[in-house]
User: Fold this.
Amino acid sequence: MAGTGPRLPIVGGVAEPQPAPAKEYRFSEQAVAELNEIVSHYPEKKAAMLPALWIAQREYGGVLTPQALQEVADRLGRSYAEVEGVATFYSMYNFQRRGRHHLEVCTCLTCGAANAYAVVHKLEERLGIGLGEVTPDGEFSLGEVECLNWCEAATVVQVGDRYYGYVSPENVDALLQELKKDEDHTPQAQADTIVRLHLRGRTSAETNAPNSGDAE
Amino acid sequence: MPERLVLLKYRDVPGMDDIAVYEKHGGYEALRKAVAMERQSVIDEVKTSGLRGRGGAGFPTWIKWNGIPKDTKQPHYVLCNADEGEPGTFKDRELMLRLPHMVVEGIIIGAYATLSRQGYIYIRGEFTEPARSIRRAIDQAYARGYLGRNILGVSGFDFDLDIHMGAGSYECGEETALMSSLMGERGQPRLKMPHAPLPVIEGVWRSPTLINNVETYATVPHIILNGGAWYASMGTERSKGTKVMSVSGHVKRPGNYEIEMGTPLMELIELAGGVTGGELKAVIPGGSSVPILPAAKCPGVTLDYEGCQAAGTMLGSGGFMVFNDRTDIVLLMRRTAEFYAHESCGKCTPCREGTRWMLKIFDRIVSGGGQPSDIDLLVDICNQMDGRSFCPLGDAAAWPIRASIKEFRNEYEYWIEHKASPVGPDCVPPVPKRLNPILPKLSRTW
Assistant:
């Protein structure tokens, strides 16, 4: 017999059913109320899948863990496999932990023909990480995205729910300085913003935020 | 020909995203006028205007509106496609951000004309800022009685409008994929005509569904208010009205410019301040999906559906990208191929495999391993994808590559022979340091 580690009890070539892990739901009362309201917008519960995943991403700290997917599945009455299948299709759901600020640089056609790659390389150098990595202190992570559709402001960088336009290698340091003080554009905050956009009649002065600004 | 401002007329008025300011500038007058008209008259007005879908396909809008059943045996739905993802396009973003009530008003008129009681605006997940503006507009419209029950006192005209946010997928801009996504599924396309009924008969939740682009809806209030004949008096014989063009790339003043259909291409470049950083080399007039135009072919091209078609390209979504002579076409097309390889939804084989093959061949060329046969291999893959993929994404991945080989074959040959850019070492986009970064997307570190 090879290996000395723990073995699954095998009966007739099939793993014996293991007791399911204790269910520990994390949706707060408010989150459940939000989900119920969003469900009421559609003729069937399943349609609330994307918003429910956004709620889960917020409630589980900016990352969709297996438990988060299970909770969405249970609350919408779908299978785990279906929820996982949907969630993994979309690029904005996180399956790995991001930094407190997840910087996503657009390198598509217009930005790429501007100076997006120089911005990426400068950020890699400043943060000491590569694309898809997180800094050791968990402050920043870096990614590359396809067109963010604000090409007039090339190069565009998305941080959470905010776009920064006219980013260049020269103003990258200023951008990083600004973000260090900032609390509002974390992955959780982004998910929260998106969830609240689904809810009717919650507009207040603070939701009428000013347009994206320059990085400078 | 200067700009012809219809949609963007009030874009610089401060506070146009607020209902009071919008009403002061004639806002919701079109809705008042529409609900006093017969439903069919509203559709006829859209027909007279000659408005064609502004999302990229240019399908006559009135045919969709008229195709919705005139009874309500089944619920009808109105969808607004705000999943703007076509590289080079940013018109819907500005319309939603600055003129959200115009979009909402157009959607409500669509609901009135098609007897719909529920609508959704599907906004891409990245667009939280435009979505906030739309959210506020919808809430204000509810407060003023433009949404809700018995709208404007018309008994039985009930309409609710909700926002549905996407989560990062270019494919969801394709209308049937958008419906899949709205129903809580993977954003993959569904069968289309002639294999399945049109969405106006069987769309979201298998019910009659009207789906139009943001710009299309934003145009409707102007048509109702000023008459279809007025709108049709602008533009060309078959492309009526105006079009918002998103100009970006190597121009002095990138931004959105609203022009009359049929405006010469070179005039739009002039409007945007002319080419910067060198001489004009190429233009992609309608988003990354359309064939590239070399500078020599640009004079004489007019910006309307037929004018672009005659030049071998398309008006598409109006994502007008200008490139100067520092641009390396092979690297630009490599980036285009990377985009489609990343965004292919994986449903059908020609697109899923074809986009990846193309990217691999491009990577081989720009890393110095290109073979003379690679050019024809690329053309062959393009031909295999074009018309054979499940939805237009496969076609859209093939067209620009094939056109670039037709127009700039010498640059491909130079790359393969000299293993370097024909433009020189300071070309844009630069030679990538990493190749093929697309695939390890699903690595998990729970």
